[in-house]
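Narrative of accomplishments. A recurring question from our advisory board has been how the design workflow behaves on a single, concrete structure rather than in aggregate. To address it, we present the structure tokens for one chain from the evaluation set, followed by the sequence designed for it. No filtering or post-editing was applied between the two.
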């Protein structure tokens, strides 16, 4: 387990099904939230697994980008959202990369964590085009 206790407590309190995984041979640390609920009617799935790679130095260092499995398409256009056309492999699966970046000056060490990062993910899903 690599998440700080306050992150684990938050995820448990909110009822998320989550796992902390380390990818063999790369030592990438990933927080996987299973069955993340997507905005109603916006994507080709109602839920998907969400992966957040946790950088060394977290929570003082912010995560950068997140990933979904299966890959998501916008239902209105039947295409991926902008800046989601690249995949990575984690757990032997292809994960769709959402290239969204938290500006360094907006990440507050000692204040921000998974709870604030998930709000960024949710907002990006809602405004995806």
């Amino acid at each position: 387990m690599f998440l700080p206790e306050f992150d684990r407590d938050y995820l448990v309190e909110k009822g998320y099904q989550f796992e902390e995984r380390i990818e063999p041979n790369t030592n990438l640390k990933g927080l996987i939230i299973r069955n993340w609920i997507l905005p109603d009617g916006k994507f080709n799935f109602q839920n998907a697994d969400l992966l957040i790679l946790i950088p060394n130095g977290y929570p003082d260092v912010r995560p950068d980008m997140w990933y979904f499995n299966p890959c998501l398409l916008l239902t209105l256009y039947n295409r991926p959202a902008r800046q989601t056309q690249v995949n990575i492999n984690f757990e032997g699966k292809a994960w769709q990369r959402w290239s969204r970046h938290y500006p360094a000056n907006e990440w507050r060490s000692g204040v921000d964590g998974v709870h604030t990062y998930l709000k960024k993910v949710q907002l990006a899903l809602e405004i995806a085009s």
